[in-house]
Amino acid sequence: MPVQKKCSIIHLDLDAFFASVEQRDNPLYRGKPLIVGGILKEDGKLSRRGVVCAASYQARKYGIHAGMPIWEAQQKCTEAVFTSARIRYYSLASRQFFRICSEYTPFVEPLSIDEVFLDVTSCQSLFGPAEIIARKIKRRITEELHLPVSVGIASNKFLAKIATNLGKPDGFFILPDEKVFEILSALPITKLWGIGQKTAQKLNRSGIFTIKQLTQMPDIILQEILGENGPKIRELARGIDNTPVRPSEEIKSIGREMTFPENIINKDRLLKIILDLSQHIGYTARKGGYSGKTITLKIRFHHFQTIQKSTTLQHATNLDDFIFQRARELLNSVNIKAPGVRLLGIKLSALQRGKQPRQLSFSTDQDREEKWNALIQSVDKIREKHGQYLIQRAALLKENDTISQKNYK
Hints:
alpha+beta; Alpha-Beta Plaits
């Protein structure tokens, strides 16, 4: 079976990431079936709304997984412990995770907040073979971040990810080329990239359940079932993946959403939430060196009817006030009526990088603009050092007692 032998690829995946961060930070959660994603109501009780963001491995034994409704997770495990998501803590751990990885190779491709590919082919003369590099990274993540991470090593990205899954949780698995046929053969076809539930059902109806069976099917049958994706999927089934590790691509948008434990109809309260969302988005954009021209407001009503309204600016911005003012105009154009709003979100898109444009505030006075930008930079520095909620707008002081980032997605 032909297998690419050009690269040394490492795949790393932080196990049950959100839940692992919570168990690390709170000893009371350790060893228990922990579910991250519950929304706490003002009375401190858990709302049945929302979905599971993450489940510890103790909770997964009960069949609980990400995306499952909270009420269903409660039924599956009555002794489960629920906690709301703390996004900024996960983001901090993620940045530390990627920082460690980037110290060994410039070829770092994040797949998500907790998963990454590394190409260490050209770095082994400095740090040693791929296995040595991977063990160093795993040890540092354990010692510095106190988080479990699974590691897979192979000659391409697809096989490296397969290797990681074979070693989970908190594992370390090397998939050598000579073992590829043996290991891939028995795996289900759903392990192949590009095989979703519907495609798997089509293949199952043709008697194809394993990767080995797929490799044995005539091209004409695979082409009929898989269409233009057929050749690529057949190559993956043979362990061939020529996709390079691509360093992080430019993000297309920066957004925040909040699901409420109870419907909100009061527009003043919705405006406070929009102000809080705008503050998060502005800070995130500035931190990444982005500004954006399009602001989108997302509103989901009680019966899951969702609308989105957008406005495009003449000049890109990343300032909280500018984002808030435009989002407020969009909210004012919507008729909010009973039984109210269950989700609110804002997105900044049409992003640009580099130096911020001059026209960022409502004032035409250049001195005032410079003072405003200087103030924002000072506030950002304080937040980075002491936490995002040390400095707050007066309008949000009481509101953030109940709407802090714990409910964000």
